[in-house]
Amino acid sequence: MKNKLLILAAAIGAWWLAERSGVGLLAVASGSMEPAIPAGSLIIVLAKDRYSAGDIISFNEAGGGGMITHRISRLEEIDGKLRYFTKGDRNEEEDINPVYSNKVAGKAMAVIPKLGEAFLRVKKIISLAFFADQEISTGNSLAAGTLDLKISDADEAAGDSLAMTWEGDGLRPGEGQAGADLKIKNAGTVAANHIHIKAVNVITQGSGPGADASDPMDANLEVKVLTYDGANIKSYLADTNGNGVKDLDDWGAAGGSGIGTLSLTDLGVDHVLSLTVGLRAGAGGANQGDTVTTTFSVTGHQLETE
Length: 306
What we know:
Blueprint: H1 2-21, E1 24-27, E2 42-46, E3 56-60, E4 67-78, E5 81-87, E6 99-100, E7 104-112, H2 116-129, E8 149-152, E9 177-186, E10 194-204, E11 221-228, E12 231-232, H3 248-251, E13 259-263, E14 271-279, E15 291-301
Antiparallel strand pairs: 1-2, 2-7, 3-4, 3-7, 4-5, 5-6, 8-9, 9-14, 10-13, 10-15, 11-12, 11-14
Helix pairs in contact: 1-2
């Protein structure tokens, strides 16, 4: 009974030392390191920057199997990374997996026989017996911000859609133009990175002399002026239909990405898209009486790669 009390007192003292000094204490269950470390011993482990062959180290087993304490049989350094090969003193062969420095808990500095099991019991009892206190933070709220594009023009206030911005009647080849400004801003709370502007054209075929659907009017509505915040962006349009001009048909080409990437990184500031179109000089009678209705859609993107 006296011996058991002494062992228990020693285990409590070891726990107290570990809690206040930062020294690691580990219980050894197996006999792979006998006679140097008998099974059931308690070892004092101290972390070091580097370990040498012959040192007994405690390390995490590969695959998360637990802590192992074995002797370093040899070490090697490859590409600046140090790894240790280990072996139990009673084992005939080295451990299968080498041990890297980040897996080592420390070097065994002292061995206390018969104290391992008692130490584990004391540690468990004390961890359960200590008082605990818990405080709670309530009412926390996390909300996502908004990216909210608004558009406006000369006669309509900022909103999600506009009835009409560009209008042109009685256009003739090489004469008459339709021009207007579209203002775009981010009225949300999250900054964007850029916008894309796509166009969808709907053609109403006229019945005038020479009417021909194979020569669509949007391919003859040449983009005369196209600027964004005063900068010429006409080059953003590709001559998709190959007729030698930049026109609404190029902008609304099926599968095309439209106009982009136009910077819009601030909040609440209007950015002006100016567009002027006219019936190109080479347009023929096939477009007499035709009408093109175009819907422009503006999409904001938060990331540069979108």
